[in-house]
Amino acid sequence: MRQLPVRLSLLSLLLLAAGVSARGDEQLDLAAVFQRTAQMNSSVLTGREVATQAHAAADVQRVALLPNVSLRAQQQRAQSVSVTNTTAAQSATASRFDGQLNGSMTLLNLQQSASYNSAKRAAAAADADAESTLQFALADAADFYFTELRNQTRDVVLAANVARAQELLTLAQNQLVAGTVTRIDVTRAEAQLAQARLAQLQNQTTSKQGVQSLLLALDYDALQSLALKPTNIAPQTTKSSAAVLASRELVTTNYFARRADWRRAQHSLEQAVLDEKAARYERAPSVALTGSYGKAAAYLDTNKEDEWSTGVALSVPVFDGLRSNADRRSALSRRRVQEIKLHALENQIKAEIDFAEADANSRNQQIEVARQNLRLAEDQLQLARQRYQQGVADNQEVIDAQNQLALANDNAIEAQYRYNLSRVELARARGEVRDVLTEKTE
Hints:
Blueprint: H1 4-18, H2 30-40, H3 42-62, E1 68-78, E2 81-83, E3 88-90, E4 94-108, H4 110-178, H5 183-217, H6 242-246, H7 248-254, H8 260-280, E5 286-297, E6 305-315, H9 323-389, H10 396-430
Antiparallel strand pairs: 1-4, 2-3, 4-5, 5-6
Helix pairs in contact: 1-4, 2-4, 3-4, 4-5, 4-8, 4-10, 8-9, 9-10
């Protein structure tokens, strides 16, 4: 078996046969991992609740701009006393019923309008923040998924290393009995077998830790078994986006607008601008309309007469202790901070995309080099076995070749694993982790 894709296919079959499902016979692929993360990840759910609270806060700010209407019914019975300089006189007992519909409405309040618009931008920023949290959670889940696949594939390879070491030990023991080798050959074979078993046990511990990380990210029970459907992203060359990144218009359309963290920063800047307006409008006049209509009588069941009132209120701030000036300076400072953050984030996004593309291409080339080294290591082991069986060399040469094959196998697995992670990071840098699902797999 000289081609790595064939080897990985066989390893995948072994993994599928040995796997224990998360629920029944279900096996999680990357798409299922993403779906579960979006639905159950605690950080994602928390981010959505924070966004819900931000929208509710915006609705609270809107209350002052909408009509306020109330219905009031009251039955009173009272007796009053009039007092003069020398005497006190008690009046007759009186009864009164009032049923009124009261309303008020803000006609003009620039400060409140700006505050409401600011709250809406804060809600939009919270939505973008929730989406950003989702993207990072998806990237983390994909990392856990590919890490566990690597560990499972490595476990199969390590089992094959143990089998080769056991075969070499059996051969050395038989040749010792036949008198064709010395005791040192058996000792070396025993040490090789012990080393292979140790590596296998260490990987099992690593795999256990990886499984639990994935279970926690997907909100499964931490003690539950989990089976994964092996998926490797097919190697490909990534086209550079340098020309797009150099154009402000193109990079904004193609990348910035797709990044949730950029949208959040943009909304935060807009909110800061509106906060500045709200501070400036604190000294603007406001106009409100009030009115009421109802019925009045002595009792609820007696004849009633109409009663109503209406009015317009104009409020003009004269002196507020310089509070509006302080609020405006503070709002201007927050605006400058958001402008600085947005500029820094845009540079960071361009750097992330540029590096992610270069890293993906480098990892792609490393896969081919690792596969070539693996083929050479297999040939080297085959030749070493032939020399040992023919009595031309001792088993040290075979042991060295086995170690080289084990290392080459591990490097090939690691190269594919690192390439998978680089594609996930590239998709995240470009704005949508789930785009990795559209790539070819093998």
